[in-house]
Amino acid sequence: MHDFDDTDLRILRVMQTDGNLSVSDVAARVGLSQSPCSRRIARLQETGILRGKNIELDRRKLGFQAVVVARVKLDKHDKEALVAFRHEITLIPEIQYAVLLMGAFDFDLHIVVRDIDHYQSLLHNKLASLAGVREIESSVVLDVVKKTNALPI
């Protein structure tokens, strides 16, 4: 763990709620002047605690009406099989989030698609043909109840 104090934590709390704030706005919200706040932000970036800013696009306004969670079970679990599968899923732009799991399935993929026909095509033409795939279980997301990247600091 890195050496940081309560002021650093206040800066991180403010910045993770709105990454578009200027240094002046962050400084005002945490009770610092601009220069020390700027130095602290720079230090947090240099140590890797603060890692960039993300812009979230409205998927629906861009024509992606559905999100599917696909759970994938591989037929092999050796290093080569895992490396190959991990690489192949990075090449599919519809997969937004992929995690390696411990349990009944090996991977959890969050996939954005225009509609169910788009997913069916993706499933048959790409996902099912990936090397080592034994089973895929798919669920359509009906509603996002909570979505955050904020850490409970």
Q: List segments where confidence is low: pLDDT < 50 over at least 5 consecutive residues.
A: none
Number of DSSP helices? 5
Helix content: 25-40%
Our measurement of the CA-to-CA distance between the termini, rounded to an integer number of angstroms, reads 13 Å
Descriptive overview:
This protein is of the alpha+beta class. 37% of the residues lie in helices and 20% in strands. The protein contains five helices and four strands; from the N terminus they run αααβαββαβ. It has a four-stranded antiparallel β-sheet. Strand 2 and strand 3 form a beta hairpin. Helix 1 (6-17) packs across helix 2 (23-30) and helix 2 (23-30) packs across helix 3. The longest helix is centred in the first third of the chain and has 13 residues, at 34-46. The two termini are 13 Å apart. 14% of the residues are buried.
